[in-house]
């Protein structure tokens, strides 16, 4: 059958699920970040697909651009936090930083 | 009209071309560009660079193979091709092989949008400048992976230095390119060149564009890791940086992409600031294709080659920056100045209604439009 | 429309396979590198959906920016093959089951909902100018707020990462 909206939604759903799996199962903070990036990509793909097939305007494109901006700022701050934790504790496992003290 | 479509139209009477799909022609054009232009260009550039280095340092340079050593680059290429390809035992084999491929992909993908002449462009992308910024930033990925996969401290340090350097210098470079796009009012490289027709070159448009052109050139030098910004491959500190462990064909790819990238940044500078294929006061728009295209290629290539020669001149004259000086230069000098150029150009566009200095002078003297 | 379908499946494979690899590979470096390919695939899908500007932005920001930062962090922390980077496979089972459940729900929704698809023509138009116009008219406030967000993230990251 011809490729339509549902196909794109399936790809984005797969990305979302893989991101969730990666986020839950990893003990490494950077691994968790990778999962979050996958989820954000899934959301962006959904926005663009809906914007192309249903809304017929550019609102989805603009939302995806905002997602990119948020992903960039999130990655920067998260990496700064990870670096700090690594300097203080020499580990970046999420389980090792249970208490909120640095 | 991009090159593949032009070819299809020009040779539409030939039976061979009539049934050829467009993607096949495009593929042929890409391969033709790579094998007929990029590879020989990189080879000749190596020879020229060695000759210039010799002149500057009062040596002779290559002079054994062929007259004046002109066949040296072919000998070099053959040597590199037939050398043993060594993969270190402790290296990460998959990534070690992947890294040059990523670098090569990024280096050659940039050629897809470079307009050599009016129709001599592989694809007339409407976001050409943005595409170039995006695709050239992927080289970093290859360099980091190469440095890490070699499993060598110097290589890793070189790779990380290079990543920090390229990410930092991308900001002033992208801002200067955006300044030029602001003046031309388009992201399409062909339209940008059209906006600079004959004497209205981007670099002359206003004082801020002049500064932006210089910032672009400096930042682009840093982005391709050329001296004085070659800290990722500083021989005296890091042996040879991220490509220390590479040999044979894979090393040749690093070398080739370095020179291809030099050409790419010169071509971008030519396109955005130096008027692309235009020559002052020589209007070719009504000339026939057979006359127009060679002239345009000559003008474009002349400008590019001058920029590349300046690059080589800089390389063999200036000493290398230190890492901290380099970062300071980027964040404390180039980034603020490029922002100032961007704002200044925007203000100029508002105040003078988008007219540049050449147009204003022409208006005062009462010729041209 | 045949070529369009082939290209779609190509990009979909290019997106999903590396993502699977990334979610299940024990080594974090390989996971990050396979995401590199996956993000390219997503950029390809964007281009296929006539979002040229967003596709280039995706390559520029994700591949050229975020992923390189992540790799940087991975390589600066020691023991890439040590205990913190290699994880056991066992921990993947429950998350995978949960993921399957999620995927089932999403698949059901995606295929049974009657989407009012309004795609009439497949005309692909350049979007850059229109996006810029909309950002400075309809979406001006979010646009300015996002620049504020970027600035604060920038300053926050510098303050956090600077050694005392």
Write a structural description.
- The complex is a heterotrimer of chains A (102), B (369) and C (164).
- Chain A has helices at residues 5-25, 29-55, 59-89.
- With 102 residues, chain A is mainly alpha-helical.
- Chain A has one domain (9-89): Orthogonal Bundle (Helix Hairpins), CATH 1.10.287.3510.
- Chain A is elongated, with a radius of gyration of 17 Å.
- By secondary structure, chain B is mainly α.
- Chain B has one domain.
- Chain B contains 15 helices and no strands.
- The two termini of chain B are 26 Å apart.
- The mean pLDDT of chain B is 82.
- Chain C is mostly helical and 164 residues long.
- Chain C has two domains: 1-87, Four Helix Bundle (Hemerythrin (Met), subunit A), CATH 1.20.120.1200; 126-164.
- Helix content of chain C is 73%, strand content 0%.
- In chain C, helix 1 (2-24) runs antiparallel to helix 2 and helix 2 (28-48) runs antiparallel to helix 3.
- The longest helix of chain C is centred in the middle third of the chain and has 25 residues, at 52-76.
- At the A-C interface, helix 1, helix 2 and helix 3 of A face helix 1, helix 2, helix 3, helix 4 and helix 5 of C.
Brief digest:
Chain A is mainly alpha-helical. Chain A is built from three helices and no strands.
The CATH architecture name of chain A reads Orthogonal Bundle
Largest interface: pair, residues per side: A-C, 71 and 82 residues
What class, by secondary structure content of chain B?
mainly alpha
Q: How many domains in all of chain A?
A: 1
Low-confidence parts of chain B: none
- Portion of residues in beta strands of chain A equals under 5%
Q: Averaged pLDDT of chain B, please?
A: 82
Order of helices and strands of chain A: HHH
Could you describe the largest sheet of chain A, including whether it forms a barrel? none
CATH level 3 topology of chain A: Helix Hairpins
Q: What percent of residues of chain A adopt helix (DSSP H or I)?
A: over 70%
Classification by helices and strands of chain A: mainly alpha
Q: Any idea how many domains of chain B?
A: 1
Low-confidence stretches of chain A: none
Distance between the first and last residues' Cα of chain B: 26 Å
